[in-house]
């Protein structure tokens, strides 16, 4: 078993044990709380574990001593698991905001709570119950990620390193929340804002909503736990941010053109949700007036049918926007690779990071 696969197994075991402990607490309060554990287990049973892997590889890159590696491994596994729980919290809230029906091939959390209401024959509005209950689930997962992070960092002998890792986590949490708001703002306010700045705004959303918390922050948190030098940490930041941008741009392409069998979400879901991505910004700039207006008219309509989705997909592809985004992905990947050339880490650690970079930028799910 490779180190990466072993980490994924250890992270899953840690998450399972953590949820089992909270299942006891929920059971002591009342059996009706079981959906919170059940839905959390379902959401946290899958996923690509990229954040956990980047955290581990950031630590691996700066850790030299075999003794410190063994002592810190328990900490790293818990912190990596905390990052996965934080990601799950973000997904629950994101699906509510976007009114998404599906996540990882299953009903989104708010839809599961909505269905629970309907099948139970309860009073009131099922959709409102679903949203309210899922907001609480997202909040609960957010709190749990903090709890598991603190548990992990408490095992770290170097308290300065623990405090530095905690500060980075706090910064990540703030930035992704601000990024989420910028995304919501753009979807609702783009008509009243300067058209010339639309691509810059879409790029800023990528950085703060996704790139930093998906790659840069986990990588740096791992390096800080390993007591990496300032130079090592800064080079890893220089690697992580452009790679995170490339990661999200690939995600945006999959959100429009991805195969539902692989992505676990309906084809063209980002079009129904009205995502004002870099892909859309470039397409609008390159499309002729009538096609651009049609894109604006249809984008964000939750009732888009399959034919309308195919029409939008064809327009975006024919505009050349897909090719442009692929070039931006390639450029950011190259920038990330260059950042590793002068950093003081082992050849083995560098190879692992480059393999992980390949996984996140060329994926189909």
UniProtKB/TrEMBL annotation:
It comes from the Bacteria. InterPro entries: Isoprenoid_synthase_dom_sf, Polyprenyl_synt, Polyprenyl_synt_CS. The keyword Metal-binding applies. Keywords: Magnesium, Metal-binding, Transferase. Coiled coil: none annotated. Its cofactor is Mg(2+). GO terms for molecular function: metal ion binding; prenyltransferase activity. One of its GO terms (biological process) is isoprenoid biosynthetic process. The keyword Magnesium applies. Belongs to the FPP/GGPP synthase family. This is Geranylgeranyl diphosphate synthase type I.
């Amino acid at each position: 078993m490779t180190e990466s696969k072993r980490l994924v197994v250890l992270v899953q075991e840690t998450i399972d044990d953590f949820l089992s402990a909270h299942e006891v607490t929920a059971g002591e309060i009342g059996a009706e709380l079981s959906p919170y554990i059940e839905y959390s287990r379902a959401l946290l049973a899958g996923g690509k574990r990229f954040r956990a892997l980047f955290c581990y590889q950031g630590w691996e890159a700066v850790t030299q001593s075999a003794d410190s590696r063994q002592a810190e491994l328990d900490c790293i596994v818990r912190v990596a698991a905390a990052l996965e729980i934080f990601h799950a919290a973000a997904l629950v809230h994101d699906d509510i905001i976007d009114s998404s029906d599906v996540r990882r091939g299953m009903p989104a959390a708010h839809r599961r709570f909505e269905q629970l209401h309907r099948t139970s024959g309860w009073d009131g509005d099922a959709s409102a119950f679903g949203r309210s209950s899922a907001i609480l689930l997202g909040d609960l997962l957010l709190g749990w990620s903090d709890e598991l992070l603190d548990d992990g960092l408490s095992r770290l002998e170097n308290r300065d390193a623990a405090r530095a890792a905690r500060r980075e986590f706090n910064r990540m949490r703030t930035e992704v929340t601000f990024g989420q708001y910028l995304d919501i703002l753009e979807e609702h306010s783009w008509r009243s804002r300067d058209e010339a700045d639309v691509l810059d705004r879409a790029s800023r959303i990528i950085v703060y909503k996704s790139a930093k918390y998906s790659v840069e922050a986990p990588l740096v948190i791992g390096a800080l736990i390993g007591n990496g030098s300032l130079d090592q940490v800064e080079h890893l930041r220089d690697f992580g941010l452009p790679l995170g941008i490339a990661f999200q741009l690939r995600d945006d392409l999959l959100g429009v053109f991805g195969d539902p069998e692989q992505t676990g979400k309906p084809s063209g879901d980002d079009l129904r949700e009205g995502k004002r991505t870099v892909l859309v910004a470039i397409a609008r700039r390159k499309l002729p007036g009538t096609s651009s207006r049609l894109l604006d008219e249809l984008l964000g309509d939750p009732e888009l049918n399959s034919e309308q989705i195919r029409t939008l997909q064809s327009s975006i592809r024919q505009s050349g926007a897909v090719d442009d985004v692929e070039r931006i992905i390639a450029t950011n990947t190259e920038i990330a690779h260059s950042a590793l050339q002068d950093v003081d880490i082992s050849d083995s650690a560098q190879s692992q990071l480059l393999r992980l970079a390949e996984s996140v930028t060329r994926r189909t799910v």
